[in-house]
Amino acid sequence: MEHYDVIVIGAGHAGVEAANISEKYGLKTALITKNLSDLGKLSCNPSIGGVGKTHIASEVDILGGVICKIGDKSAIHYRVLNLSKGPAVWGVRAQIDRDLYSKHILKYIKSSKIDIIEDEAINILEKNNKILGVECVSAGKIKSKAVILTTGTFLNGKIYFGREVKEAGRIGNSSSKELAKFINKNFKTMRLKTGTPPRIYTQSIDYDVLEPQPSENNGIYLSYFTKQNTNKNINCYITKTNNKTHKIIRDNLDKSAMYSGIIKSEGVRYCPSIEDKITKFGDRSGHNIFLEPEGLNSDLVYPNGISNSLDIDIQLKFLRSIKGLEKCEVDQYGYAVEYDSVDPRELKLNFETKKIENFFLAGQINGTTGYEEAAGQGIYAAINAAIKLKKIKFNSEVFARNNSYIGVLVDDLTKLGVTEPYRMFTSRAENRLKLRTDNSYERFGININKKIFNKTEFTQIKKNINDESKIIKKLLSLKFSPNDLMKKNIKVKKDGKVRNGFEVLKFLEPTIENFKTFFNISINQKLLTKIYFDSKYEVFYDREKKSYEQLNKNKNMNLKNIDFNKIPSLSKEILEKLNKFKPENLYDAGKISGITPSALFQIVKHKKIKGDRVA
Amino acid sequence: MFKSGTIFSNFTPLVKSPVIGYRISGDDVLEILKKLTNKNFSKNHSRVQIIKLFKRDGSILDECSVVYFKSPKSFTGEDVCEVFLHGSPLIASQFEQTLKEFKIPGLRLAKNGEFSYRSVLNNKNSLKQAKAINQIISNDSFSSLEYNKKLLFEGDQVSGLTSLREEAVDLFSEITASIDFVDDEEFNFKKIIKKAKIFFYKCHNILQKTKNMNKEKNICKIMLIGPVNVGKSTLFNKMIDKERAIVTNIKGTTRDILSNEFIFDGRMFEVFDTAGHRDKQGKIERVGYKKAQQLSLEIDHFFILSDKYSTKKQIYSLKKDFGIKNNYTLVETKSDQYQYQSKNVKINHNLEKDSVLSRLKISLIHKKYVSYKVKKADFNDEEIDFLENILQYKHDILNESDILIIAQIMRNILDDFSYEFGYINNEDVYDRVFSNFCIGK
User: Fold this and answer.
1) B407/A contact by beta carbon, under 8 A
2) Is B440 in Cβ contact with A270 (below 8 Å)?
3) Which among A59, A197, B39, B57 is most buried, taking Cβ atoms within 10 Å?
4) Higher pLDDT, B215 or B158
5) Rounded Cα–Cα distance for residues A474 and A503 (Å)
6) What pLDDT is recorded for position B255?
7) Does B415 contact A at CB distance below 8 Å?
8) Interchain proximity A569–B408, CB inside 8 Å
9) Quick check: B390 pLDDT over 90?
């Protein structure tokens, strides 16, 4: 019987990242998947990245993950969202060739020391709430010190084509019932819903009448390490729904799984079905549809923007009312999926279940949505497993909420739970100005280690860090008085304050030429942009931090040793919640849903009088 | 199961008076009433009754009115009872002692504001309303009193901040949407930044307006001056009616001059008693007299008191010392002892307060110096502080074109609003984003 350090069940984006990093940190790792061809499958839209999503993905990248690197290898179209705003919210998005992505992932995993077990896991083996291993259909019992479960939406999955219901996870997969039983028995679950649009044959689309959206392959890639993308880049196209489309949908709302009352769970607010859009925003004359090619050699197109659960004849009818799609043919109709996810509050901060030691959950099973969110959790869970089993050198402080999007995600999930599939938005991060993709090597710097990168990659990071520190050193040594700056046409307050080069940088237009003439230092544009915004935001952080501290003087109040039961003026509901989540400080307490400010006030008051006069 | 604990406190001062009131709130109210009355006090018991209360040794504590409010129809939302004891501080102490001797776990003296906070926890009042109760009690002006009453009785929407809060959340939602969902809708950044600026101008204007309004006074300041022993203090005491003690806001200690506010005919006055004037003043008296002179600049109207023995010269030098022009009334005191021939106002200590004040034509004086109209306020003091706090960000936003920095500042502002109204979290913002914008594919 094989004995592993880590077994990862499920080989989607969470599973692949988990297995990969676990192996890199020297743990004996197995990856169980029902079907090798599903390895790292892009099960929904054929793209990686976007605002918020790129942010998580780039953290996975710098932690040694694969999603960005393989994403770039398989990319056939790039766009950078928010390019007109600061780099803190730039969102690279790449259209991915599905087949290429699967091919590259498979090749990569096969070349690693990970044992791939093509089998179905049917049970989790544990004794006295400690993990023992996994039981598979053909391989039988396999021992392991830790198990990371990343099985996505397999729990009690139901698919709705209009009013027709099928039991399944994703199309083509049967629900793994045994495993589901184990999860349902041991953990609190919740019902979530998501939807997907129909897939259209590319030959049946009339592209001549549509507005193309060309690729902007402008040197900004998903991965920090990517130098270029040599794939052929192809266009996406934009079309729009119209009043005729809307009428067809409106007249047939009773044929939608969501609107006929068959599906009861709440819809995802940020991923509305076309039925939702038309009901809520009926005044619009049209909603955009992005026609995204599924690959260079694929004959399918993913029409982003029209996920729905209407009867299939209605789907075809409304599709053919849309410009360019008048003669379209459909391969796979849109559907809605309902599934169970584990309440992520069942997890400790390290993503180990509270109930079973060394049993980790990662990915969509925790109530999230998106490849990048899954990848982030996969790598996070595996790093924590490695810390626990092998005591690897890793400073977990990088996963603090104010240092990383992974930290924001982990914090939100484990503390607040979810009511709809959780997706990352940059606005979830209070410290957004700092959590940038262009400084991830700095934010995770202390953990960058030779083990997880090849030589070229490692040298690249080191060189980057060295180059930057040299330039910063020079900048700091340069001094400018207000008079010097006036002479160079830079308007500053005549406060007599001598500023160093770094402080002055924010007043310049950040071009290489400007930088060279002003400071007489050579620099590349990428690095210049980074330090320019560091210069611009740094002063602001300080003030921000100060005023924040001043306003929330008590937010950091330590609540670790406080017995909430001794605060007699708290309501029972609030007390229950406080005892359940055990917030470490007042700020965390305030984020627990249902905790009122007056309750916080009571806690502060109690803490300040240290319980005297309290019976 | 955890019980939140029953609390009690007196709601009248513990001084000799007709009645001393106690309020008890919590799960144990019925049990306490049973023990106090030796009767089976049930939830259906009549709500108001006069009933005998007993001490632990069986002797009578008091016979008094007891009002029972069944949860949730009470101030705190818990079971509440109010007991109106005879106004002896000794009975009050026996009452507290008896409660202690019941040894009910968790029963204790309430902390400051605890009844109000329970009412917030049980959704009987919003955070703002609970704060308004405090503001009402500590009110110094009629205009803010009216405002705070409205806030308490009609709810948060009365507050001028409510609309600002709405605007701030909307603005932040739009900024959030324009960054995180840039692909899904068309956003106009110039417009968004302009909206942010307008928001601040609005805050600024409101603050200025409110500040100016608060500068407008609604209190009439009067000062009693006159030779020694002419009866100034007698009049002072009569005016402020010490025995009924409606207003006992003595500020004088800081000025070595007695001053007190009182209300007559719905108008507010502050009256200053001064050290008397005589030719040979002691050192302390001289200091007091000087201070009164300095204070005279703030005074609207003077009452110059005199009696049979006061000389014209004395009155003349008083007028000179205090820089008095036409803003004075000559008052002749002790009119029960002496006969005066003049047309001056005459008073004596046998007169009732009201007739003294009407002889002094004090309402007319108020009208002459103070615009009586009660201004309509939109903010209380706490809210004005809050606005000032928000405006500290004004400079940053007005000079900023980076939407990320603006977003960061707006987030701070929402945090501030959270503390005023209750928590606004990311989810609340997203709710608004997703209902105002068609987000997602």
Assistant:
1) yes
2) yes
3) A59
4) B158
5) 12
6) 41
7) yes
8) no
9) no
What average pLDDT score do residues A273-283 get? Answer: 86
pLDDT tens, residue by residue, B135-153: 777 666 666 777 778 777 8
Domains and CATH numbers, chain A: 3-189+344-451 (3.50.50.60), 199-218+229-338 (2.40.30.260), 454-551 (1.10.10.1800), 564-609 (1.10.150.570)
Q: Which of B5, B407, B412 sits opposite A547 (nearest CB)?
A: B412
pLDDT at residue number B228? 80
- Rounded distance, CA A243 to CA A580, Å? 50
Q: Give the span between the Cα atoms of A32 and A28, in whole angstroms.
A: 13
Distance CA B176, CA A432 (A): 12
User: The whole model's pTM is what?
Assistant: 0.76
The ipTM is: 0.82
Residue of B nearest to A270 (CA): B440
As to burial, measured by CB atoms within 10 angstroms (0-12 exposed, 13-18 middle, 19+ buried), residue B440 is buried
- Residues listed for chain A: 615
Looking at CATH, the fold of the domain delimited by B142-213+379-436 is given as Four Helix Bundle (Hemerythrin (Met), subunit A) (1.20.120)
3-state SS class at A352: strand
- Which residue in the set B111, B120, B181 is minimally distant from A598, CB to CB? B120
**Closest residue to A551, CB basis, from B182, B415, B422:** B415
CB A126 within 8 Å of CB A185: no
A281 with B438: Cβ contact below 8 A? yes
Q: What is the pLDDT of residue A161?
A: 84
Tens of pLDDT, residue by residue over B313-353, are 888 888 888 888 888 999 998 888 888 888 888 888 888 88
How close, in Å, is residue A429 to chain B by CA atoms? 10
By C-alpha distance, which of A246, A271, A354, A312 is closest to A580? A354
Give me the torsion for CA of A290, A291, A294, A299, rounded to 10°: 170
- What are the chain A neighbours of B400 within 8 Å (beta carbons)? none
Query: Looking at chain A, which residue has its C-alpha nearest residue B115?
Result: A569
Nearest to A597 among B411, B419, B430 (CB): B419
Distance CA B126, CA A592 (A): 19
Evaluate if residue B200 carries a pLDDT over 80: yes
Q: From the CA of B38, how many Å to the nearest CA of chain A? A: 26
Q: What is the CATH number of domain B219-369?
A: 3.40.50.300
Least confident window among A1-5, A59-63, A436-440, A538-542:
A538-542
Selecting from A277, A569, A597 the residue whose C-beta is nearest the C-beta of B4 gives A569
Contacts of B405 in chain A (CB under 8 A): 433, 537, 540
**Residue in chain A nearest B420 by alpha carbon:** A597
Domain boundaries, chain B: 7-117, 142-213+379-436, 219-369
Task: Mutate one of A425, A436, A586, A613 to test the B interface: name it (highest B CB count within 10 A).
Answer: A425
A:B CB pairs within 8 Å: 143
Determine the residue of chain B that is closest to A290 in CA distance.
B441
Give tens-digit pLDDT for A588-615.
776 676 565 556 666 766 665 543 332 2
Q: Give the architecture (CATH level 2) of B7-117.
A: 2-Layer Sandwich (3.30)
Q: Token pair of B109, please?
A: 């003296």
Angle among Cα A207, A213, A216 to the nearest 5 degrees reads: 145
pLDDT on residue B139: 67
pLDDT exceeds cutoff 60 at B360: yes
Of B180, B392, B411, the CB nearest to A425: B180
B18 has a chain A CB within 8 A of its CB: no
What contacts B228, CB < 8 A, 6 or more positions away? B276, B277, B278
Kindly tell me if the per-residue pLDDT of B248 is higher than 60: no
Mean pLDDT of the residues in chain A: 88
Q: Is B392 on the interface with A (CB under 8 A)?
A: yes
Give A535-573 pLDDT, tens digit per residue. 988 866 665 555 445 445 666 777 777 777 777 656 666
